[in-house]
Design brief:
This protein is mainly beta and 98 residues long. It has one domain. Helices cover 8% and strands 28% of the residues. It is built from 2 helices and 8 strands; from the N terminus they run αβββββαβββ. It has a 3-stranded antiparallel β-sheet. Strand 7 and strand 8 form a beta hairpin. The longest helix is centred in the N-terminal third of the chain and has 4 residues. It is globular.
Length: 98
Amino acid sequence: MIVPRLYRRLLDDPTRLPLGEAVWQDTLIELPREERSRDRYHGLLDSASITPARQSEVTGIVVARALDAFPVAALHADATASVNGVNVPATKTLGSER
């Protein structure tokens, strides 16, 4: 789940929603180590296909992409991941615990 808070100072218009690159620019949410090998995440609210990005030494989700259509995002890993060199199905929702 991506749920922004304290974003009002990023907006020039108080009636505007915090969507897209104009608001979030290059903001990246760092993925936990075990999630960095995922190929892709699927947006459950907008069907967006989001590929993790790398900025410097950080791998994560580009917020502008995840919050392009809605001001919140629920992401689900929908590709395989490589665990110790073995591809395994990804069935975990980002942020959920098993």
